[in-house]
Amino acid sequence: MVGWKKPLGLVSALVLVFAVLVSAATITNVEWGNAITQPDVGYAADIIEGQPAVINVTIVKRDGQPFAPANFPPNVTLTVRGKFVDQYGNALDMNGDGVGDIYNFTNTTTPGLWTTTINISNVQPGMYTLRIDAVATNTTTGAVIDNATIEEQVWVAGGPYWVAIADVHDGEQVRIGSFNFTITSLSDVGAILTLPNLTALTLTDNDHTGILAFQRDVTGDGSNDWLMFVKSTGEDDNTVYNLYIYSKDASLLDKFNSSDVDFYRVKGDRIRFANRIFKDRNNYKAYVVWDNSPLAKLGLKAVDYYIVPVKGHDHWWERGAPAAHEDIKVIKRTTYLWGLFGNDKVVYEGNIFGKNVNIDNVINILGKFAGNGALFDTRSWRWDILRGMGDITIPNGYTLKSRELKDLAIDDDLWRGFNPLKTDKHGFFSESVDWSKLLGIDTGDESES
Ligand SMILES: [Ca+2]
Ligand SMILES: [Ca+2]
Ligand SMILES: [Ca+2]
Fold first, then answer.
1. H or E element: which one contains 12?
2. All structural domains of the chain with their residue ranges
3. Which of 179, 232, 288, 434 could form a disulfide with 401 if both were Cys (CB 3.0 to 4.6 A apart)?
4. How many A from CA of 247 to the centre of ligand 3?
5. 209: CA distance to ligand 2 center in Å?
6. What is the pTM of this model?
7. pLDDT per position as a tens digit, 106-158
8. Phi/psi of residue 238, each to 5°?
9. How far is the CA of 275 from the centre of ligand 3 (A)?
10. C-alpha closest to that of 159 among 92, 93, 229, 249
């Protein structure tokens, strides 16, 4: 008798484990059609209100077969439903009619593949949780015989055009076309804004989303646009707020005009050049921080810096949720005796959006502004940073020069001693930077955007 106990115990344990493993159906894959960005590690799917998005889910039943009517007895009905949920699991109203919305999936001709289209309108942009439930019910007994659930994070964008302004804070004035306001205070508690007519607008984060939102028509087309302060984590793990403005009006991107460029004198002898363009559609702009010290003027020794945006969509991308990417390179060019000796050195390479990048304690570069447009393409949809701007801070004793990136190659005024794009070798200058490649001049393999 004793001898039977152990094997029986083992068998029942195995049965239990097996039962747990196969107890429910599984949603094995969620695929988005025409989401503006696809979900990826660390990034949510990104959809736009007013633009229908397709969701395809692949579901297998508990025995591993496709979750399809043909694989169930005739008295079993299958339902697959999606809904955006609040913290209690209730369906949210995603089209402004006051009623929570359920999206019914239909099964396709591929067994186990279910599809639906969701249309969102009149919702505050932000992160939402989409819950999808697949249920197999015995219609005779009413019993659920199989089920699967999955939750997906989805960023809902408030329009196909938007701008992100990094790291806004108290005391800052924001200007968008004819609309402007001052950020009187901004913190976890909420924001107080001073509008043009000196009325105060108070925003609170009652729903604890880290988003403070309000609506105004900032583009002047008669339709409201969304303005949102989104809490984020800065370079030093500090709390920063990025301002997002969403619109269905393409003119939004042009409301941030470079003619609004500001110069500020900051601490000591430093000067900040605000809102300088790095990228405007397919035009990229480079900046030269030109040494004006007495030694440099005499041609004895000069240290100049070249701030070069890296061309291509791979370097100017945006993922909807708070994540923009703007790549630059900074080359330090040291020249002696009018360029007879010297060297080039890459001193920074990477993203500047939302960062205040310190170069040699000489220059600070903050990627401040990303103007995005949704590109609807038959092959892929994506956000493109159409316009990228930033603040460049340099010391007194330097001059900031700017040129179209392509003109660096032809403009000798921007080079001390000699133009390395025209001359391979000069005196004892040690070549360490491939300028042509850097500027995308001679290689045919640059990705275009
Ligand atoms: Ca509704
Ligand atoms: Ca909120
Ligand atoms: Ca508008």
1. helix 2-21
2. 24-157, 159-255, 257-449
3. 288
4. 6
5. 4
6. 0.83
7. 999 999 999 999 999 999 999 999 999 999 999 999 999 999 999 999 999 99
8. -85, 160
9. 22
10. 249
